[in-house]
């Protein structure tokens, strides 16, 4: 039987945990979350559904959210109030929704309680594995063990609270049928056509040829009566979403603005029902970028931002591309790097004259010519190679997009977030020995000058191909 705790907050231990533990634990979180999700799916068949479906999304997000919130709590200054809040929303609300989710699925709390136990056990195994590296005392380990298992107990108690609330206010049969249909649609290939057709008939819902998924900002208030009758919705999950039959029309947009006022939404691509999970995955990624400040608007359309979604779909790979194509700039100062990359990106995008580039950058044309000579000398023949030039442009565009992400307010994480927030300076690796480059004959960018310009200095390199037009 689950031990019922006061969900108001964990009692602060007499001797608080050292905040430095949070810095030691945080690098372990991504791989620890993967390990916990894998173990839960292996041990509990009810949760062993595709990770890109609704069950997998709820499981993954909940594990990541709870781990992050626990580490934030450990790293909080002594005396800080211990509230169940994490960086992406209310941890208490997430735990309660998990309990409601179990009730809506017609299950008991046994599966969720087992998942919490597994999560605590896997987390503690990781702590025992990592602790010897940092020579943690037995007293600290004891207090950390207490904190881990008290935290898991409190999450279980909050989930039980949500479960009992859902049981006391059951969903109408038709709404429950539509909820089940929505989740099976998002299971993708795992859902048979016959099963989908049967669920659609039970839900009194016409199966369309195409669907559009909409990701909704967490903790949003919805005016249910404003939603169209054919819209399927799950707004109680940690990552709320809607399914719209057919394409996204101006009428659907007006409906969203009325039903979910004042909150961000992202609209995925219109796809066949079997690819609904892809539409939702893109919509959620676009919503995340909008919340970070990379994309604009309360209503973000994936159709208008496909290049951005592609460029930022794999940040680690983009960083490796940046290292490969731009590490040649490492010997320069940050200011020099910024000026040259800004000028090079503008030239690659516009192929404009020095005067046109100068107008865009609000600098003098002669400054553009100087920078282009420096770029030519630095990159050499790579700018004549279409594949290399494309790689450089992709890296520069991705850097420009990622630079829109604001610095985090928490100073303790500033160093960790610097690479993502300001990649034009921080994401570049040190240049390996022997990586210095010199300009080669036949470089593609010329420092074209008008006839009235000052003569070229003796010994200065001269390009064979003139790219700029006056």
TrEMBL record:
Disordered: annotated segments: 403-470
Pfam name, any one: HTH_30
Protein origin, superkingdom: Bacteria
Domain PucR-like N-terminal per the UniProt entry, residue ranges: 17-186
Domain PucR C-terminal helix-turn-helix, residue spans: 340-398
InterPro entries recorded: CdaR-like_regulators, PucR-like_N, PucR_C-HTH_dom, PucR_C-HTH_sf
Compositional bias segments (type: Basic and acidic residues): 404-413
Record protein name field: Helix-turn-helix domain-containing protein
